[in-house]
Amino acid sequence: MSSEGLCGLYTIQLKAALEKIRELNARRVLLHAPDGLKPLYECVESCLQRLHVEVLYSSEPAYGSCDLPLDEARETGVDVVLHIGHEEYTLRERVWGSDITVVYVPVYYTVVLDNTLLESLYRLLVEAGVQRVSVSSTLIESSQRAQVARYLRVKGLLVREVSTPLLGCYYGPVVALDETVDAHVVVSGGAFHPLGLGLISLKPILVVDPYSHRVWSAREEADKVLKKRFYVLLRARDVWGGRLGLITGGRPGQYRRVLVEYLERVARSSGFRVYKITSSYTTIERLVAIDNALRLDLYVVASCPRLPVDDLSEFYKPVLTPGEFIMLATGSEKYIYPW
């Protein structure tokens, strides 16, 4: 697809970013986006060129609004980081720093969902006996979320539309509706956000994917993930009170000092010897390297709670989320995610 065709599929809210660049009289700007949205660099390029700024294009990944290349920005001497695709991350414990100006550039997918897709969603809900439903989405699918909510209301369902965008570590506004709905509908591409919701809510979860043009149920897959997590918890219980690696995040929005200190206190009171490990991007390869050095029994990831679930579940030693560790420490039978 040409850049012109691609840009026509999205609304990119650049106004605030351009105003900030003018206000600061910025001369160097770093563009940053999730890999799937990096093609939109070309869509904002011409607007920035009209301001006569030097544009740098970050190849670093972006796994969320918490994940910004601030060290890269400092080393290259940019005045402004434009992060494309998310709103500001509100769960961080500290500010980015006065030396770096970060401007979030919201992006919205503009394609209108086909009525055939919406009707298939409605029929699946009716067949499941659903009368009350929540409808949520990530930021980028806000328009499609509103379209789904309108369609289901017209069809006679009681709809609770959730305007707060989903994050991989935050589903609070949706889960708060568990007692008042029969099912959740998530409008998003892929399985990442629906499966995250399925870790917390046991309600049926139907997914409307506006990119693959399909409707699917996330409940079965989420239940499989939950079973794997409970197996990891059993393995962790077998080494309880041993040597624990507490992984602290090195990314700007993922260093959670208060959480780290709390987990350390709980671990020490449970008899663990605690090793605090810094890591910007925690992979199985990085875990192997540190485990070869320290030979620990158990790891807890205090940065991104999706890492133990999505990326580190096959590691040969138990790797827990903060919530899972607290479950074991308190004897809770209820699954806790994320912290």
Give me the secondary-structure category: alpha/beta
| General shape | flat
CATH architecture of the largest domain: 3-Layer(aba) Sandwich
Reading side by side through the largest sheet, how are the strands ordered?
8-7-9-10-11
Look at the structure and name the CATH superfamily of the largest domain. Diphthamide synthesis DPH1/DPH2 domain 1
Q: Output the number of helix runs.
A: 13
Query: At the first level of CATH, what is the class of the largest domain?
Result: Alpha Beta
**What average pLDDT do the residues reach?**
93
Strand content: 15-25%
The biggest beta sheet is recorded as: 5 strands, mixed
Order of helices and strands: HEHEHEHEEEHEHEHEHEEHEHEHEHEH
Word description of this protein:
- There is one protein chain.
- With 339 residues, the protein is an alpha/beta fold.
- Helix content is 38%, strand content 20%.
- It contains 13 helices and 15 strands.
- The chain has helices spanning 3-7, 15-24, 41-49, 70-76, 115-127, 142-154, 172-175, 192-200, 219-238, 257-269, 284-294, 306-311, 322-330, and strands at 10-12, 28-32, 54-57, 80-84, 101-105, 107-109, 132-137, 158-161, 183-187, 205-209, 214-217, 243-249, 273-279, 298-301, 319-320.
- Helix 10 packs parallel to helix 13 (322-330).
- It is flat, with a radius of gyration of 22 Å.
- It starts with a helix and ends in a 9-residue tail after the last helix.
